[in-house]
Design brief:
Helix content: 55-70%
Oligomer: single chain
CATH architecture of the largest domain: Orthogonal Bundle
Order of helices and strands: HEHEHEEEEHHHHHHHHHH
Distance between the termini: 75 Å
Shape: elongated
Radius of gyration: 31 Å
Structural class: alpha+beta
Number of helices: 13
Strand order of the largest sheet: 1-2-4-3
């Protein structure tokens, strides 16, 4: 086995000299940590200075499924060239997250645990049951950019809102604000829980998407905090949650298909929500409320942008998927038609904010709310056409969308 020429060729990738009188725990740790970093067939060299240690090292080689390729001895000690005979890790040729590249595989590797893409995973690791592992049904070309935008545009309800600047408004106006804030908060709970429901089902191979969904969850948590604090900023506090709103949110919450949910939530629901927030920005009776909804709208726009690109890509790849999405809307409508109601408390509150509480002002506000609902429908159609829907189908789906807006 002694082949001096192999030592002279320097064919090994690591070299250690053990000077201690035994194979100590520290050296065992170092050698054990070396093995996972080597590919199968790579050689490493170990020199021990005492014969007793050489016997221990040869035993370690056998236990760890390696083989001795060559040995050499002289007055300086005993040298070994060791071959790693097994592949301990699945090697990844994928780039990790760098803000530019994206995952290249159409299906996430089965042996892919909770680790960043680009890492090497040990073969004996458990197989996680990630249900969502196909890139086509998850990915959007803009997801990395949206993640970067989310990081740069974080805001805090503590430091970015001057809560002490809220004026003492007419109690009717303040009550209307509190009712609207209650509605906004409960809808944001829906927009928080739904991405959270899918998050643990997505393979971390698509780490950019996982991280972006994490920002959505944090965005919605921040919105819930800000809307609730605005309602409680004065003496009136949070108001009423209606059955109409809760049934609508429930019908969205129980959807199990990620693609359908992306369409229902991000394109239809949050898309319509943008129009509502624009309405509140225009008619908010105080600058603090206006700032809260303005900041929230910037976050919601990112969520909508993901949904638009995601749905558009899937529809372009297979236009028959439009019927699949229409089926989701129709199924939801059947459930909601059992109690097809609008949130009258919300609509009345919006009318008060847009016109006032006296008879003439309320009539004006009511008309403005009707114009809002019309604009919501037109923009839903526009967004669906942007995703590849034909105009007739887009109009039909928009008409079937929940009266609750989300």
């Amino acid at each position: 086995m002694e082949r001096q020429d192999l030592f002279l060729m320097n064919t090994y990738v690591a070299e250690y000299t053990i000077r201690s009188s035994s194979l100590t725990q520290a050296w065992l740790l170092r050698l054990n940590a070396l093995l996972p970093t080597l590919r199968m067939g790579e050689l490493f060299k170990v020199t021990v200075l005492q014969r007793s240690v050489s016997f221990e090292f040869e035993g370690w080689v056998q236990v760890n499924r390696c083989s001795l390729v060559a040995t050499s001895s002289d007055l300086e000690g005993f040298s070994y060239l060791v071959n790693k005979d097994f592949e301990s890790h699945t090697l990844s040729e994928e780039h990790g997250f760098d803000g530019r590249s994206e995952p290249t595989l159409d299906i996430a590797p089965k042996l892919f645990g909770l680790m960043p893409r680009g890492a090497h995973i040990e073969n004996s690791s458990p197989l996680y049951p990630f249900e969502l592992s196909e890139k086509e049904f998850l990915w959007a070309k803009n997801v990395t950019r949206l993640y970067e935008e989310a990081k740069q545009n974080q805001w805090s309800a503590d430091t970015d809102i001057d809560w002490g600047a809220i004026p003492d408004l007419d109690p009717v106006i303040e009550t209307a604000i509190c009712q609207v804030m209650t509605y906004l908060a409960e809808n944001e709970f829906s927009a928080l829980y739904i991405p959270g429901k899918f998050l643990s089902k997505i393979s971390p191979y698509y780490m950019e998407l996982v991280m972006f969904l994490g920002t959505i969850i944090y965005d919605e948590a921040r919105h819930i905090e800000a809307f609730s604090r605005r309602a409680n900023a004065k003496k009136i506090g949070l108001q009423y949650s209606t059955t109409a709103t809760q049934r609508s949110l429930y019908s969205l919450f129980i959807e199990k298909d990620y693609f359908k949910t992306s369409f229902l939530l991000h394109v239809l629901g949050e898309g319509t929500f943008l129009d509502l927030l624009d309405f509140l920005i225009k008619y908010a009776p105080d600058p603090v409320t206006k700032k809260i909804v303005t900041l929230a709208k910037k976050d919601e726009q990112r969520h909508v942008n993901y949904g638009l690109v995601h749905v558009k890509a899937l529809v372009q790849a297979n236009p028959k998927r439009i019927a699949y999405l229409k089926e989701a809307v129709d199924s939801r409508k059947v459930y909601l038609d059992e109690m097809n109601q609008e949130n009258e408390l919300l609509l009345s509150s919006l009318a008060i904010l847009a016109g006032g509480s006296d008879e003439e002002g309320y009539a004006l506000g009511y008309e403005r709310v009707q114009q809002l609902k019309k604009r919501m429908g037109e923009n839903r159609v526009r967004r669906m056409i942007e995703c590849g829907f034909d105009e007739e189908t887009a109009k039909e789906i928009s008409m079937s969308h929940t009266a609750n807006f989300m």
